[in-house]
Fold this protein.
Amino acid sequence: MENSSDPTRHGGPIHEVADAVGARVLMSPDVGGEAETAETTPREHLNWAIKRALELYDAGQKENAVKSFMSDMTKHPGTAFIAAKPFSLMLVQTGCNTSRQEFQNMMAGFKL
């Protein structure tokens, strides 16, 4: 579903997508774009997801940053286990609520 009520605020039209638990997440094509494919390594996919999450964090969308990261983890077979672990969401949220650096550290800290 597309929402273009304020396209200049986000640099383009906003698209509503469902995350891993069915929550609605707003995504802008200029914030991350399309998901990486299984042809990338798990580390490359993780780094891509971290970049997308930090872009949302920097835009003041902390809740969407966490949702985006967790959703992105389900999109690669080498990172899907991260979203499946109950403590992963708690760790990422804690990092997000502490500081940008801690948020980045928490996301990058998963062993692949």
